Amino acid sequence: MMMWHNKFVVVGVTGGIAAYKAAELVSVLTREGAEVQVIMTASAQQFITPLTLQTLSKNPVIVDMFAEPKAWEVQHVALADKADLFLVVPATANLIGKVANGIADDMLTTTIMATRAPVVFAPAMNVHMYANPIVQMNIHKLRGFYHFVEPGSGRLACGYEGKGRLAELSEILETAGRVLNSGTSAQQTPGEYSNRVVTNINDQLEAQQCGVADYSGLTVLVTAGATREAIDPIRFITNRSTGKMGFAIAEAAARRGARVILVAGPTNLPAPPGVELVAIESARDMYAAVTEHYPGVDVVIKSAAVADYRPKQRAGQKIKKGEGDLILELERNPDILAQLGKTKQRQVLVGFAAETNDLIRHASDKVRRKNLDFIVANDVTQAGAGFGTDTNMVKFIFPTGEIHELPMMPKSEVAGAILDQVLVILRQRDKE
Ligand SMILES: Cc1cc2nc3c(=O)[nH]c(=O)nc-3n(C[C@H](O)[C@H](O)[C@H](O)COP(=O)(O)O)c2cc1C
Prior knowledge:
The protein has helices spanning 20-31, 50-57, 75-82, 93-100, 107-114, 127-131, 133-143, 169-182, 201-209, 244-255, 283-293, 336-342, 359-369, 411-431, and strands spanning 8-13, 35-40, 85-91, 119-123, 147-148, 152-155, 161-165, 219-224, 229-232, 235-237, 259-264, 275-279, 299-302, 309-311, 330-332, 348-355, 374-379, 391-392, 395-397, 403-405, 409-410. With 432 residues, the protein is of the alpha/beta class. Flavin mononucleotide (FMN) is lined by residues 14-18, 41, 43-44, 92-95, 124-125, 129.
């Protein structure tokens, strides 16, 4: 595991019964050549002594934000800057709740808030604590920014059977290694941020506890960005879509274990780790790529802004400036979504509707006409919603007329909400 050599890893240890397992983690990391700095919460010291972790990490353990000998160095900032990776093992319900709510009242939470390094949480707690909707909402909220190693199922120290046991160390190390290699940092999304309203928390919880919350075994096709419709070799018609929403969905689905095929128009965004990128240019290219992959996928999320029309004639040479006006005649592009709706088998089909007026009427009409499972509708005239922004404000509209309204939130979190909703639909299908 050469990857750990000379890496600066901050290990946060919190007050759970599994705190003793942090000792082995620290020991492995140190042996592999990482420089390890341990931060313990006050409660963690009830479970394991700083001396043990100090001996294993070969570094003094930080336990008190205000009692450090080198306070003038502003330790929490120094550590936050220096870290290549943060691992919180085990992560208590309390710690997760504090981070999810922006609380920084000790060295660990303050340093997590100050860092740009990726953070991996390995939760461990009583099965009922883990199943508590508030804990699940906090985890769900943090997933948009940080990484999680799901707890395992089994017999817990409290005597209950179920999910909540700290994941195996090998799994924690594997996730940590993957995160370190992919270089994904904590995403600190600027702009207004509001708590997510989880409308269907019980369905989502059930989905998560039955093990389908991770997308392993599922193939998700995502489309993103704008298409370009050529007028001549150097000019084209396009739109304002940047691809951010679709790339966020693709990234989130891959992180949750799906095989992800991302069919995207030209964009400046890098392909998310682990995603198969199919780069296309025109609506017809997108049509060909999507219909080719469609039969083999479980879920299609069509967030691309596909041009409805293309120039009827594409000039072979650059069109020269003339004296008078130039009239471009446009013809219809194929309607990809309608085609997918018509030929739908078992796939869950999700569309997007970006509208400037009569949002609900247009989107409700589209969800039924195109045989979608639901549509993600947003009014692109609103601040913080739509093209080029890091946030979005959307509604999920269903063929039944039901509407779930989500507050303004980072696109990464909208992506998570869409994927959760898809899981609810897949689970309902399994039951039928
Ligand atoms: C014996 C014992 C075991 C505990 N185990 C856990 C645990 O596994 N997970 C958890 O979230 N909280 C557990 N708690 C509760 C936490 O210690 C408590 O919420 C504490 O405030 C956490 O503080 P921290 O997050 O700052 O470390 C346990 C408490 C006791 C007394």
